Amino acid sequence: xxxxxxxxxxxxxxxxxxxxxxxxxxxxxxxxxxxxxxxxxxxxxxxxxxxxxxxxxxxxxxxxxxxxxxxxxxxxxxxxxxxxxxxxxxxxxxxxxxxxxxxxxxxxxxxxxxxxxxxxxxxxxxxxxxxxxxxxxxxxxxxxxxxxxxxxxxxxxxxxxxxxxxxxxxxxxxxxxxxxxxxxxxxxxxxxxxxxxxxxxxxxxxxxxxxxxxxxxxxxxxxxxxxxxxxxxxxxxxxxxxxxxxxxxxxxxxxxxxxxxxxxxxxxxxxxxxxxxxxxxxxxxxxxxxxxxxxxxxxxxxxxxxxxxxxxxxxxxxxxxxxxxxxxxxxxxxxxxxxxxxxx
Length: 344
Fold this sequence. Notes:
Layout: E1 2-7, E2 12-19, E3 23-31, H1 33-37, H2 44-66, E4 75-81, H3 85-102, E5 106-110, H4 111-117, E6 130-136, E7 139-147, E8 150-156, H5 162-173, H6 179-187, H7 212-224, H8 229-258, E9 262-266, H9 273-286, E10 289-291, H10 302-315
Parallel strand pairs: 1-4, 4-5, 6-9, 9-10
Antiparallel strand pairs: 1-2, 2-3, 6-7, 7-8
């Protein structure tokens, strides 16, 4: 089954073609980072308008890369939520229109399920069940994943997510948007420990997170004294180390408590090199395996949406859901735990 995947949940337009037998055939991604950089974060109206400009040209580009025609597509998958309402509507509208015109099913995919399943595109792929550290945008969660649609929440952030803390701290340091890559780059010039920052909830004896206090601690450092270039780099290094310390400790604890031997990392923060180094070292010490998606599939992308749809369609009793009727909706807020499981 050949599936076209469309991702427009926030500030990246992702298109991909995934074949159930041959794997990922082609993908393309357009990021709006430069568009939103001067505002220090995503402007929803600008994001929606830019998706409108990009989605069809990117679809044509992906079809050309794969050497297939639009008529060859067997299903169209799209991000139905969570995300920015206007941005989601762009992708959903295009997907539903294409599916209806081709007489094929349209499959709405949960954005976070796409991230959770993205590491399964790699070789070797993790087997179910596993623990997942989901660090994507406004979400920082630990989950037990027993199968497609079988997600048990073990812990989550009580306030700011790791990705949000990166963006807000980058803004405080005046180094631009998106915050994660900017802080990681600046941290290479600094040394953790020269400036002390807290590790929130590191010893809370549960699997929850909190990063708003860490961001506030950075704000106080910036407010209390003028930071020269080296001090800013030291703050970036210490901030990154604090985030990584907490994520690694909580992830290792979740694996130990579960009795499982596999950890999957998913989402944009999963591309952070320091996090990968530290998690891999913790896995070697504790005797569990850790799996990551390729860096290009950590951030929002169409490949993860097409792949998630392929897994859902493969496990459904009928591989051909109904062709969409007129009318559709998106879910800007959508609990991952509400997803229906599919049989293996």
